[in-house]
Amino acid sequence: MHVLITGAAGFLGQRLIAALLDRGRLDGQALTRLTLIDPAAPALESLSNDAIDVECRDLDIAEPGALNASLGERPDVIFHLAAVVSAEAEADLDLGMTVNFDATRALLEGCRRYALSATRLVMTSSVAVYGGELPEVLDDMTALTPQSSYGTQKAMCELLISDYSRRGLIDGRVLRLPTIMIRPGRPNAAASSFASSILREPLGGETAICPVSTELEMFVMSPGKVVAALIHGAEVSGDDFGASRSVMLPGLTVSVAEMLEALRRHGGEQALARVEHHHNKDIETIVASWPARFRTDKAKRLGFAGDDDFREIVESHLRERAASM
Amino acid sequence: MHVLITGAAGFLGQRLIAALLDRGRLDGQALTRLTLIDPAAPALESLSNDAIDVECRDLDIAEPGALNASLGERPDVIFHLAAVVSAEAEADLDLGMTVNFDATRALLEGCRRYALSATRLVMTSSVAVYGGELPEVLDDMTALTPQSSYGTQKAMCELLISDYSRRGLIDGRVLRLPTIMIRPGRPNAAASSFASSILREPLGGETAICPVSTELEMFVMSPGKVVAALIHGAEVSGDDFGASRSVMLPGLTVSVAEMLEALRRHGGEQALARVEHHHNKDIETIVASWPARFRTDKAKRLGFAGDDDFREIVESHLRERAASM
Questions:
Q1: Would the CB atoms of B141 and A144 count as touching at under 8 Å?
Q2: A150 is catalytic
Q3: B146 close contact with A: CB closer than 8 A
Q4: What DSSP state is assigned to residue B240?
Q5: Which NCBIfam families does UniProt cross-reference here (chains A, B) (predicted)?
Q6: Which domains does chain B carry?
Q7: Contact A143 B147 (CB under 8 A)
Q8: Potential cystine with B257: which of A26, A279, B115, B214 (Cβ 3.0-4.6 Å)?
Q9: CA pair distance B247, B265, nearest whole angstrom
Q10: Interface confidence (ipTM) of the complex
């Protein structure tokens, strides 16, 4: 089993690599080869599995033909994680179109060229494909009306992957990810950054800023469950997806107040006091535009699993933090 | 007011030209210039309006930069009708992607390049953007899960036009057309071609083939109402479209059995007997994947109007036929 990963050095890519090397198997077969595509090198020092041949390739998928040689080696599974994030895609339309859309199309064309009709392609999409005036609770048949260029580009890729799959040119699957909580590391420019920050920093003894009202709800999933969903996405039967190869993953609906209550439960009043409330209208507007309530019937039918409750999300973060110390 | 039309020599293009020359005005302003883009020359002999400067350009919009000179002349309204039809796009993925998607993207990029942010771009889309397992009655928030490459390409253009409009690069509007009945002329490569054919040919004394079961329902609109909708699409305010610049036009739900009953009513048993039933699984599959029942609230809110009943559709065809004899 030969697995290729684009965006391998990213947050999800690195975790997926670790999980794959740890399992050593995918879809009932031994994993023998891992091709990692990223202009940055994934951190692999601590990872080892002698049975698996791991190769990193310093490639920019936006360069024409960048993936051809790798696709010519006929990978069995492709995890296509490389993307320009939402704020970048909004700031630079051309960059977003080139990386998020054109590179995905080139990947599909490469699969077609090398007749990789049985290759399973797993791409990550996002709640950002939704937007505008939405129903109170979304479901698998809610229209995609993205209000960002990032969401537009992802939605276009979703359509293309479904069509190439329908035509038998590829065996595609697209997972729409909830907001990932709790990300490790530091706050970043993402509008959703505060959500991880208001737990992570106070639990680590630092202050954090909450820029939104506490009634605001988000649809979230832990990094561990997202990686498990990526792996499941490669193992589930493509035919079971039905008319569209896209699926919204089963996130958890949680309000900022509930996040802060979990912080108090795990870190005490002391931790809660480290959260400073400075309202930021721009961030509130963006985050409030993301849907928070979903009926994810298709994901459940396909066997994708989410987190049971927010406490589990916090506890898995604390376990990881302890393990990395 | 300078209007540019792509696909000007096509069925809808020709009718739109005639309607515009006849009106002489668009959106309350005098029409002064009409630029007609098509590799084929539109038939203009019978049309004349001295106040309007009409120029035909023999251009293939799929050629890189083909539209640049025309866009540099800063048209106020663009009707983008050029497309490869569904059966062609299904038979030739590359052709469909090039003409239906890439050329539309190049048009949007051309508008961006010449800063045509106030130019109203009206594109035609189709019920083919819908497909798969659909609710009994669709509405404006039903997800697009096209089951053809044509529908996929149109859905991708819709997303792009909404995003370019949201970014203020263009003032776009996309009209999802029901199946147009009754088209004049001869059967063509469109999967829906039979629907016009089973009325048109028998009423003209010729035989026609019905390749689908008579229980099949379609969502249809007369050529006259479609042309009126195109003009209204250029006149309505883009801001009123809301989160998406696409709208499903208010078609009429009619079964093939009802079409044949109308044929019998207008042409007698003799006409009905000219319809030969030869089932074609491929055509049935494509056409059956198109939804036939819609709640078109958005179109009605925006002031788009459909046909009152199927008899009106047949009678308008017979009037046109008589007028052209």
A1: no
A2: yes
A3: yes
A4: G
A5: ErythonDh
A6: 2-178+221-250+293-306 (3.40.50.720), 193-216+253-291+312-323 (3.90.25.10)
A7: no
A8: B214
A9: 33
A10: 0.95
